[in-house]
């Protein structure tokens, strides 16, 4: 069978077989490709979709990207039940098994080091939103501004209230990030989410990921929960546990982001 | 655990991780697809295509 190899993750060998009914990208079953003391989790993908040129085009097709992202996540999810996988970036494709083996060999040291660092850890996502719809305490109804000057004054006040709310949200997010970073081994800041893509209401002020030992997750989640009723107009969202996607790259130099 | 609601994972949270996280393999052996810049461009293109298809329900003021 021809086709390219899509690589989901690199792991340490694990005793448990993958669930028989597990399917990956394109409905193909993932399989294990061991090399030395590492295992790559791979499946066949068609060249028509995953060779460099079609892949570039497909990455801009939201339906295609969604299907691949969900399938990728499904395999990673299954792996997290049996081991701590090191996820690869979406769309990592090789020509054949031997290409995958060569890659494993070339990156062996990195993979081992990162796998050790992530062993037994999960990632939690925390987002803070400022609800923009909420009209800040505007000066009583003042139905219609009586004059241009009144109008300008109202506008100024509204702008000031919005700035205050924004500033308050930033302070809240900074404090929260600092507190959560203390409870976590590492943290990453993702770019604020585009509301068109997320469909979320409000403005995304913080979009962070935290690396937390699995055994300390409950404590971490409770800590996030306690912040949820903090300030009206500010919404905190928690996602996870994720495989440590955001921490699969090089280790950050300490906690300087915090 | 109190908050592990297993709702379907939001695509945008998934893309944050799958397109910005994960190990990036560089090197001559691969097709060199997983490239940070490439992915950033793709995501922007994607967002603008979404924008074009689905006009924002909110009026863009100024």
Count of domain modules of chain A: 2
- What CATH architecture of the largest domain in chain A do you see? 2-Layer Sandwich
What is the CATH C level class of the largest domain in chain A, in words? Answer: Alpha Beta
Biggest interface between chains: A-B, 62 and 39 residues
Nearest-integer average pLDDT of chain B: 58
Record field, number of beta strands of chain B: 0
Note the quaternary state here.
heterodimer
Backbone CA Rg of chain A = 23 Å
> What structural class should be given to the helix and strand makeup of chain B?
mainly alpha
Poorly predicted residue ranges of chain A:
253-258
Q: What is the average of the pLDDT values of chain A?
A: 87
Question: Tally of extended strands of chain A?
Answer: 9
H/E series of chain A, N to C?
A: EEEHHHEEHEHEHEHE
Provide the β-strand percentage band of chain B. Answer: under 5%
- Unreliable segments of chain B (pLDDT under 50, ≥5 consecutive)? 1-6, 27-31, 34-41, 53-62
Protein name (chain B): Gas vesicle protein
Keywords (chain B): Gas vesicle
Main location (chain B): other
Pfam family, one (chain B): Gas_vesicle
Describe it.
The complex is a heterodimer of chains A (258) and B (62). Chain A has helices spanning 47-50, 52-58, 62-80, 97-118, 148-183, 195-198, 217-226, and strands spanning 4-11, 31-35, 38-45, 86-87, 93-94, 121-130, 186-189, 203-213, 234-242. Chain A is of the alpha+beta class and 258 residues long. Chain A folds into 2 domains: 4-118, no CATH class; 121-247, Alpha-Beta Plaits (2-Layer Sandwich), CATH 3.30.70. In chain A, the strands form 2 sheets. In chain A, strands 1, 2, 3, 4 and 5 form a 5-stranded antiparallel β-sheet that branches. In chain A, strands 7-8-6-9 form a 4-stranded antiparallel β-sheet, with helices on one face. Chain A starts with a strand and ends in a 16-residue tail after the last strand. Residues 253-258 of chain A have low confidence and may be disordered. Chain B is mainly alpha-helical. Chain B has a domain at 11-53. In chain B, 45% of the residues lie in helices and 0% in strands. The longest helix of chain B has 18 residues, at 36-53. The radius of gyration of chain B is 17 Å and the shape is elongated. The interface between A and B is large, with 62 and 39 residues. Chain B: Keywords: Gas vesicle.
